[in-house]
Amino acid sequence: xxxxxxxxxxxxxxxxxxxxxxxxxxxxxxxxxxxxxxxxxxxxxxxxxxxxxxxxxxxxxxxxxxxxxxxxxxxxxxxxxxxxxxxxxxxxxxxxxxxxxxxxxxxxxxxxxxxxxxxxxxxxxxxxxxxxxxxxxxxxxxxxxxxxxxxxxxxxxxx
Length: 159
Fold this sequence. Notes:
This is HK97 gp10 family phage protein. InterPro entries: HK97-gp10_tail. By secondary structure, the protein is mainly α. Helices cover 50% and strands 8% of the residues. It contains four helices and four strands. The protein has helices at residues 6-46, 53-56, 96-101, 126-153; strands spanning 58-61, 85-88, 106-107, 116-117.
């Protein structure tokens, strides 16, 4: 067969296959971030009203970025290249977990040492938001993966 260079075709195919993971990841990131934004909006709508500080502390950390201090176990966390993180809290608002899960009755320390705290009732907002947005996020990300795979398989541009 004239004009058929199997080595050149194999080399082009190998190069395209090697590029698929990065190309797919790049094309899927907007869907991941959009899904995290959806979760954030729903969580804010479900968070209890107060002064709005808790709601404002619910934020998206995009791929490769670092979460606000105190949002992840009291410290910071870097989002992976294929994930967006939704966190609650910042240096001024460190009580999201207490609102989400409530507190048991306990004896106070600090300024009110020795007094009895009656506990607080849980007011879940983040976990319900995650449940409400999970199916849509899966569909959105699945579509993005499918489109990115087809685009990569066809040798589409991923600038």
